[in-house]
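2024-03-11 09:14:02 INFO worker-7 job=invfold-0412 stage=load source=structure_tokens
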């Protein structure tokens, strides 16, 4: 009798657990494939799943995506501990690093920038644009 109860409890537990939905991992929205590929090539995607999570972005302090044909750095705002950003020789027209408070060096030279927002970057020591 105890065995039957254990079997039924096991079946019930499996049934209940199979109804649980896994929450998808949060991900950083990076619409520019060249930017995403550059991040993956540099090992930012530490678990190799092809997406950048907020935790993976949080760990990055130095980023060099120069010469990668990037036209949009949307997603850079998730890299909150970024000290250095090198993004020269791309096709950027706008760059907003106002949420990257730790940034102290930025090289965005040789782009087509018409808008650059560094309004909150009080730690910024070196700017090349």
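2024-03-11 09:14:09 INFO worker-7 stage=emit residues=129
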């Amino acid at each position: 009798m105890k065995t039957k109860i254990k079997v039924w409890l096991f079946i019930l537990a499996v049934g209940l657990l199979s109804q649980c939905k896994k929450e998808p991992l949060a991900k950083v929205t990076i619409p520019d494939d060249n930017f995403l590929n550059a991040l993956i090539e540099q090992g930012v995607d530490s678990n190799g799943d092809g997406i950048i999570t907020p935790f993976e972005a949080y760990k990055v302090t130095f980023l060099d995506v120069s010469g990668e044909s990037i036209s949009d750095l949307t997603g850079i705002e998730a890299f909150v501990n970024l000290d250095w950003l090198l993004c020269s020789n791309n096709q950027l027209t706008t760059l907003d690093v106002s949420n990257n408070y730790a940034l102290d060096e930025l090289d965005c030279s040789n782009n087509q920038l018409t808008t650059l927002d560094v309004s909150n970057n009080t730690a910024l020591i070196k700017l090349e644009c």
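2024-03-11 09:14:09 INFO worker-7 stage=report msg="Strands lie at 62-64, 84-86, 94-96, 105-107, 115-117, 126-128."
2024-03-11 09:14:10 INFO worker-7 job finished
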